[in-house]
Amino acid sequence: MQTTKRLIIDTDTAGDDVTSLLFGLLWPGVKVEAITTVMGNIPLAQCTVNALTTVEKAGRSGQVPVYAGCDRPLLRPLVQAAYVHGPDGMGDSGFPPPSVRAEAEHAANAIVRLVNDYPGELEIVAHGPLTNLAVAYMLDPSIAGKIKRLWVMGGSCHFRGNITPTAEFNFYVDPEAARIVFEGGFPITMVGWDVCCRYALVGGKDLEALRAIDTPIARFYHQVNRKALEFNRANGLEGVTHPDSVTIAMCIRPELMLRSGRYRVEIECQSEANRGFSAVDTRPAPENTPAWTGAAPNAEVCLEADYRLFYRMLTAMLRGDYREFANI
Question: Starting at the edge strand that comes first in sequence, how are the strands of the sheet with 278-281 ordered?
């Protein structure tokens, strides 16, 4: 099948990040040019090991380069989420070390190099803190205009946070990096925590149907997500959340996004109480208020997604049977 998508995936590899990587590595017509890792859910070294392990489990060991990136936020102490995903970020599974090591080049440098080598051809799917992207932009601001599309899993649109009442985890960990990226002129599509909770929470009979799929990839999926499932159930979410994988699925099949809007998104960096809050200006006439700055929209924000299509894609990927999607 002809390649239809060429991707860089930037990830703090734990839990659903793994599912997103599997989509990229296994979906027909998708070529992952590189995986870049960033601290977030767990420390950078473990994120990198997890990415290499996922590449290996997907049968792509040695074919997709992995580059380790930033091990701390730009300005703040590192906040992590091992309490969600287990100390190893993979459901506390104790997988053996991967057989391949990461590349020597820093992730931010790799992003700059690849984007300049293939201007207008690469899409980036970023589902960790945006530190690598911010550093890459500071090294070469021209990359913002050379990326075909930047898919950002982060923030939320008029919805609760998942680490504080107002902030989604990725933006909370490094709000300054998120602000740099959102103000840098990148062609951003933002897929927030609100989309995950409303349209990418797999539980009940749907989750049981996934448990009946007996493939190595399906067993790997359930293993790495088991701790997050326990955490979700203890906190009122009955199922496995898929913020990262619904984002890459949307990149692969854009019709998965049923409704979106072009809005101004600003990331709060000054208020500790609202650190990392994504202020999405959906007002129909903001220029009629004295506080309006005149700033233009800087992102396409996903508002609604097709859960059934996402679930069918997830099922196809875990089964390794893509016949339903053979028209791509």
Answer: 66-68, 30-37, 5-11, 123-126, 149-153, 188-191, 299-305, 257-267, 278-281
Mean of pLDDT over the chain:
95
Token digits of residue 26 = 């296994």
Q: Name the strand (E) or helix (H) holding 247.
A: helix 243-252
CATH of the domain at 192: 3.90.245.10
Q: List the catalytic residues.
A: 242
Please report how many Cα atoms fall inside a 13 Å half-sphere around the Cα of residue 300, on the Cβ side.
16
What total of structural domains would you count in the chain? Answer: 1
pLDDT in tens, 119-165: 999 999 999 999 999 999 999 999 999 999 999 999 999 999 999 99
Distance CA 277, CA 177 (A): 13
pLDDT in tens, 173-197: 999 999 999 999 999 999 999 999 9
Copy the structure tokens of residue 32: 């992952």
Instruction: Find the DSSP H helices in 140-242.
Output: 169-173, 175-182, 193-199, 204-211, 216-234
Residue carrying the six token digits 């239809």: 4
Domain containing 164 equals: 5-325
